[in-house]
Each structure stands twice: as C-alpha cells, then as structure tokens.
C-alpha cells in the first residue's frame, strides 16, 4: 500500500491538472534477436532506434515465458506482503551493501524530495556471478523474500545474456573496432548494475476524489549505460519524443524494452539519445515492472569513444569523468534535472 501524507498528494497529482488524457501511442521500433533478420540488419536497427527515440522493443530474446510469468507472480506476492515484512526484507538487502540506497522504498524516489505513486525494491547486481543478487545470510526475516530473490537471480542471469547481445549489436552497428567495447563496461566484476522492481498500485479512492493521472515515477533519464525493462500488461510508461511531446508505450509482457542511458549518450558523443521517460498511473490494475540498469565500474573513466568523435568531425561533446563522479552528481539532483549538461564541453 502506498499511503500519502497531507501535502504529498498535491505533488504526485499535479500533472493531472495539466494533462487529463494519456498521450498518443508511441511508434516503438522493434528489434528481433531471434534470427529473423540477418545480424547486420539487426545491428543497423539497434543503432537507428538508439539514434531515434533512444528506446526500442526487443523480441525473439530467448528468455523463457515461464520465467517471466514466475517473476511477475513473485513480484506481485512480494508487494502484497505486510509493510513490516517488506521493510525487513529491505533492511536485509540494504545490509548487504551499507551506505547504498538498496532495499524497499515507498513513494520517495531518491533523496531529493521526489515523490511518486510507487513502491519498489532496489537491489545491487554482481556483474559476472551466477547468483548476482546479494544473499543476506541465515537471518533472513522472510523465507518468501528469499525465494523471490532466487527467482530474480534466474531472471538477472537470463536478461544479462540478452543485454550483452544487444550491446554487441550496438558496437557492430556503430562500426567499433572493439566489438566488446560496451559489453566490457557492464561485465567487469566491479560493474555497478542495479535491479529495480516497481509496483504502482491502482488508485481507486483518489479517482473518486476527482484526481486523474498520478505521477507514478516522474520524468527522468536513466543515468547508466542501458536499462532493460519488462512489465506486466498494465500501461503507464511514457517516453518523450525529440519534439518534446510525450507518447504512451503500449505494454507488452512478452517483450523487453531497452532505454539508452546517459552514459551511452556520452560514449557515443551524443549520437545515441538518453531517452526521457516517466510512468503515469491511471489504470484500475496495478503495474509491475522490473528494470535492469547496467552501469560501468565506479572507477571507469568515461568519455566519447574516439571513433565516434572522429566521425563527428573531431568535436568531443563531453568531458571525461568517472562513473563514481557521475553518480554522485546524479544523487545530488532532482529526478527531472538534466544532469548531462554539467559534463558538456563548450561549443567552439
Ligand atoms: O516502472 C517503470 O515502468 C519505469 C520506471 C523507471 O523509469 C525507472 O525505474 O527508472
Ligand atoms: Fe527510468
């Protein structure tokens, strides 16, 4: 249950006054990894999608439908647990990485006052391990959380393999000499990846009070390299198009959606677009989504790849920074802020 204190509703419900109806449907490009297209065509399609919306759908991904159904059911069961149980599970997840934002959260996104009609579980992911989510020892407060974590581990292993394939296709499509240039960043043992499970409860009472669409997750770009999202059949995700208008993403529980993140925009010298997106809640059914955010190691020095700078007439659009530096900067800002502008170089 997401419970709102007085004053908080105004912040979450504000956009409803601005926009009552969901925006038109987005034309989301599809990339079939199932061998339907030749590899070069798939690589070209990935690059075109990343240059366009910075967002695309992956079909033919090979992740078993049964696993997706189990993740969905286990996530729903987790969020049905009583608040103290969810918080206890969170405490254990947080204990695995002291000082991290990991664990269970409700309506507070980040630590700069952003609110949303959402509750979530945030977990750190070990890059190369067979069981990539942290265990929390024998003192697990909740056996059901333990089995949820096991299912998520299976999920992470399957999605990671698919994501590496997408990153290889990207490198091929960009004509990079080093085909593993992007995979290397997210598969290093110190790579900083995160799994987030979001639950957006329906809001019957608020609807009765005349509130339309609520902000589930306010507009933002994802800071990492890429994010791979899978949701149940409930709508709510919206992306911002290049002209600044918003478009709704039709849910598709059989497929994955890929977002270009801020770091990939930098690595490609601005050729790929880190897509601004948000979740608006208006459905009578809950939305459950699972997002794998793939990031580089904290010490990794990030800068536009030389080949792409050369292709861009030699102009380097971003200065070099480490992932640690970028994350620190992101933690200090509100969700909706443009964080990349602090790392842009001066135009000549
Ligand atoms: O829950 C969703 O569908 C998307 C949420 C999101 O954009 C995020 O967690 O970064
Ligand atoms: Fe996001």
Question: What is the strand and helix layout of this fold?
Answer:
Layout (H helix, E strand, L loop, with lengths): L7 H11 L11 E3 L6 H13 L3 E5 L5 H16 L2 H13 L7 E7 L4 E12 L17 H32 L6 H7 L5 E8 L3 H5 L5 E7 L5 E6 L5 E4 L5 E3 L7 E5 L1 H6 L9 E5 L5 E8 L6 E2 L3 H6 L9 E2 H10 L16
Parallel strand pairs: 1-2
Antiparallel strand pairs: 2-10, 3-4, 4-5, 5-12, 6-11, 7-10, 7-12, 8-9, 8-11, 13-14
Helix pairs in contact: 2-5, 3-5, 5-6
Bound molecules: 2-oxoglutaric acid (AKG) and fe (ii) ion.
2-oxoglutaric acid binds next to β5, β7, β11 and β12.
Folded structure, characterized:
Strand 3 and strand 4 form a beta hairpin. This protein is of the alpha+beta class and 348 residues long. The mean pLDDT is 89. 34% of the residues lie in helices and 22% in strands. The chain is built from 10 helices and 14 strands. It has a single domain, classed as Jelly Rolls (Sandwich). Bound molecules: 2-oxoglutaric acid and fe (ii) ion. Fe (ii) ion (FE2) binds next to loops.
């Amino acid at each position: 249950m997401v419970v709102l204190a007085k004053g908080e509703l105004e912040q979450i419900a504000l956009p409803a006054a601005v926009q009552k109806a969901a925006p038109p449907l987005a034309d989301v490009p599809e990339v079939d990894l199932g061998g339907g297209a030749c590899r070069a065509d798939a690589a070209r399609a990935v690059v075109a999608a990343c240059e366009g919306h910075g967002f695309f759908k992956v079909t033919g991904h090979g992740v078993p439908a049964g696993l997706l159904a189990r993740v969905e059911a286990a996530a729903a069961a987790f969020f049905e647990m009583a608040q103290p149980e969810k918080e206890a599970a969170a405490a254990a997840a947080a204990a695995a990485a002291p000082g991290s934002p990991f664990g269970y959260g409700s309506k507070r996104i980040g630590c700069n006052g952003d609110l949303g009609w959402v509750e979530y579980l945030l977990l750190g992911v070990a890059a190369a391990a067979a069981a990539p989510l942290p265990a929390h020892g024998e003192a697990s407060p909740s056996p059901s959380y333990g089995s949820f974590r096991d299912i998520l581990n299976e999920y992470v292993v399957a999605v990671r393999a698919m994501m590496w394939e997408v990153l290889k296709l990207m490198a091929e499509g960009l004509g990079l000499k080093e085909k593993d240039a992007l995979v290397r960043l997210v598969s290093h043992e110190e790579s900083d990846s995160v799994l987030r499970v979001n639950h957006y409860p329906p809001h019957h009472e608020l609807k009765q009070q005349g509130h339309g669409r609520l902000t589930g997750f306010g507009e933002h770009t994802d800071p990492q390299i890429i994010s791979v999202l899978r949701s149940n059949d409930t709508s709510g995700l919206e992306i911002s198009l290049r002209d600044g208008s918003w478009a709704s993403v039709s849910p598709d529980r059989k497929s994955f959606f890929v977002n270009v993140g801020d770091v990939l925009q930098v690595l490609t010298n601005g050729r790929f677009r880190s897509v601004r997106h948000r979740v608006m809640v208006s459905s009578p059914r809950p939305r459950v989504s699972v997002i794998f955010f793939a990031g580089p190691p904290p010490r990794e020095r990030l800068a536009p790849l030389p080949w792409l700078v050369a292709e861009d007439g030699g102009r380097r659009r971003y200065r070099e920074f480490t992932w640690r530096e970028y994350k620190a900067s992101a933690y200090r800002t509100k969700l909706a802020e443009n964080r990349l502008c602090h790392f842009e170089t001066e135009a000549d």
